[in-house]
Amino acid sequence: MNVTKHPRDNPPLEELSDVIQKSLEASFANATTSVVQCPDLRQPPFNLAAPGLSGKPCIADIGGQPNLFPTPNVNAKYSLLSLAKDMQMSPTEGFLLGAGAAPFHDIGHNAELAPNISWKSKTESPGFNDITSISINNETRVIQVGQDGTQSCERSPSANCALMMNLYGSNGNTGPVLKITAKARTGELNFTNCIRLSLRDFYGDSRPISLGGAFLLKSGKAKFHVMPDFPDPDNLPFRDRTQLEKEWLTYHVFDAPVVCLTVMHSADPEGLRLRMEHTHCFDADGNRKGGHYHYDVADGGDVEYEAYLHPASILYRIDQPMA
User: Fold this and answer.
1) 32 pLDDT exceeds 70?
2) Which of 38, 63, 210, 284 could form a disulfide with 177 if both were Cys (CB 3.0 to 4.6 A apart)?
3) Is residue 268 part of a domain?
């Protein structure tokens, strides 16, 4: 697969905090942004596969929506561990989180995926090509909807993925991070776009910022979509994006708490056809809720968020579709 590498020139965390704070104050009745020592994100309610977001932070955009529309590319199959190798991560220890498509070739149908996986070496010479040399903690969730419309959120049976993937990677260590809280939305932007557009407006195309991490929908409700299985061949290709978004995707509204794994970019000056924001979520207290985050609902008045984010030092573009 073709892999390109794009370094990021990040401002200090304190500067990013100040920039984001101003935007949040315009969109939420109560909001705070600060630089803190990351709490242990393995603990409830986050239940992540590693304690933190620090240590060689990087982001990758893999594949893309052209692998789904207008006709699914069933050859676009990936391994999270192979992608970690493409991201030049160490097999000694590491952590990936993000959003993408589930491994249809493993589970038998198309679905959403919330990658959440860490690893540590078991031998003196670990390698991604020898999974016996590393200990894997795979907390990745598959979010799917059955033919009867029933939704489930379950641990993935494999460390694979497909079609499109947006990943934040690090050593998984604790360290300084951006802590963002927001309550009672008063503006039109959703939580993630409020953050990334504040960075776009301040830094423009000349200094793109790529962030990743996790946030908790602590209270309120939010709207999510979940991809069903691929249509039968007689209904392909998709006529247009309207058919895909309005006739094929399924939409759901769920109450908090929901854990959300996010990757976002302020700009795409290299023309890499990045997915500018991608957030997938899973149930914090059960096995049903989750999907692709859109926005909180009920006018946002009772919504509350808590986020821990970190900028990536390097962006990798992997297997970029030609179309």
Assistant:
1) yes
2) 38
3) yes
Q: Does residue 207 surpass a pLDDT of 80?
A: yes
pTM check: above 0.90: yes
- Whether 238 and 249 have beta carbons less than 8 Å apart is answered as no
The answer to whether the beta carbons of residues 243 and 73 sit under 8 Å apart is: no
Q: Find the domain containing 210 and state its range.
A: 3-318
Classify residue 124: in a domain, yes or no. yes
Cα–Cα distance, 221 to 25 (Å, whole number): 21
Per the structure, how many domains does the chain have? Answer: 1
Length of the chain: 323
Contact 303, 48 (CB under 8 A): no
- Residues of the chain with pLDDT > 90: what percent? 87
Radius of gyration of the chain (CA): 19
**Position 323 in a domain:** no
b (16+ CB within 10 A) / e for 62-81: bbbebbbbeebbeebebbbb
What's 27's DSSP letter?
Answer: H
Contacts of 11 (CB under 8 A, 6+ apart): 203, 207, 209
| CA neighbor of 32 nearest in space, from 241, 247, 213, 182 | 182
Structural domain contains residue 281: yes
Percentage, residues of the chain above pLDDT 70: 99
Q: What is the pLDDT of residue 300?
A: 62
